[in-house]
């Protein structure tokens, strides 16, 4: 038994007397224990590739690293470059890796997907954010939790099946995609647009996002990112009465949101099992704001003639997007009627509709049964407070059966000293391996 399986926990997970685990499945679980140190080493190596987004660093070497491993496992590997995407450049190429391991039959087909990009490390770390340090049974580093740990667990789930000498009847596909942290449009969305995620070739999709190993994530809320520009009139800062200050105009917008829209949103709730429960309500966040002129960090003596704010509205499946947008537009219309000097523009930046997989589908029920058999606990069904690439699988790829399941704790994502529990890494690898066997057949 690998030292990474957590002692007694590892014995429980691979106990051959567990009635619902077959002999072949038991062989795979044992193989994962044997591969434990390799799984951890792979994750460390992934963390040490600083795929920071923005701007999209080291995407190509990360894709090649994963692709080399897939090739060793027998996958046919291709590198899918989103050359026509706005963020693609020679300095920051948008490179995705896509592998296919054909089974005895083309279908059913299980697609395992993980995003390779990570958010900037930020301040407050006590370890090297790109060091992959092991401490107290945890692997530390930016992306350890979100979601390079999930990539490692999913890849080695397939590796364990292969090492156990088992050939699946159905097909496995694996992708490492870019830009999920900024919407996924050059990543999973691009793959779906190219027809690589579609009902004719994809039966099931598992995205190993960090939502706890005993949870199955069925979907997420909707997201509407928008920009408001308030437009003033420039004048000398010593004579502000000759101008119109755009920052003050934005203040009117923010005040109206605070006094009218926020109270309205706070009483709207969804029946989706969003975690944490506070996220079951509609929300609006100000992501950023800038107004006026600056030069070398010092403001010029001018009345600000433009102020820009970016907003993040999370809406519920019970809300219609047209109504969500109209609420914002109505605020600007109201302020224009109240104040003759008020001018503003509304721009849509991103719209993502809510998605939710039926928990009675084969994918959900098979994963749930496997969690019960491997972890000896009943899974919790949840939905994510934020979006992930499920949106592209469903809205562009039109594949109905998609879930997020993987190692890591959601509240650690994007935090300093982000980590993944090694025990969770192994546990989720076991669940994904047996789920693949049960969905695709042996």
Q: State mean pLDDT (0 to 100 scale).
A: 94
The CATH homologous superfamily name of the largest domain equals Zn peptidases
- One letter per element, helices H and strands E, the order comes to HHHHEEEEEHEHEEEHEEEEHEEHEHEEH
Indicate the radius of gyration in whole angstroms. Answer: 24 Å
How does CATH name the architecture of the largest domain? 3-Layer(aba) Sandwich
Q: Termini, distance in Å?
A: 25 Å
Strand content: 15-25%
Helix content: 25-40%
Query: Spans of 5+ residues with little confidence (pLDDT < 50)?
Result: 1-19
Helix segment tally: 11
Structure explained in plain terms:
With 442 residues, this protein is an alpha+beta fold. The protein has 2 domains: 3-220 and 355-440, 3-Layer(aba) Sandwich (Aminopeptidase); 222-352, Alpha-Beta Plaits, CATH 3.30.70. The chain has 11 helices and 18 strands. The protein has helices at 8-13, 23-34, 36-47, 59-72, 144-163, 188-193, 246-266, 321-338, 362-375, 390-395, 422-440; strands spanning 76-81, 95-101, 109-115, 134-135, 138-140, 171-177, 204-207, 215-220, 222-231, 283-291, 294-295, 298-299, 306-315, 344-352, 355-356, 380-384, 402-404, 419-421. The protein has a 6-stranded mixed sheet with strand order 1-2-6-3-7-17. A 4-stranded antiparallel sheet has the order 10-13-9-14, covered by helices on one side. It is elongated, with a radius of gyration of 24 Å.
Annotate the secondary structure layout.
Layout (H helix, E strand, L loop, with lengths): L7 H6 L9 H12 L1 H12 L11 H14 L3 E6 L13 E7 L7 E7 L18 E2 L2 E3 L3 H20 L7 E7 L10 H6 L10 E4 L7 E6 L1 E10 L14 H21 L16 E9 L2 E2 L2 E2 L6 E10 L5 H18 L5 E9 L2 E2 L5 H14 L4 E5 L5 H6 L6 E3 L14 E3 H19 L2
Parallel strand pairs: 3-6, 3-7, 7-17, 8-16
Antiparallel strand pairs: 1-2, 2-6, 4-5, 5-18, 8-15, 9-13, 9-14, 10-13, 11-12
Helix pairs in contact: 2-5, 2-11, 3-5, 5-11, 7-8, 9-11
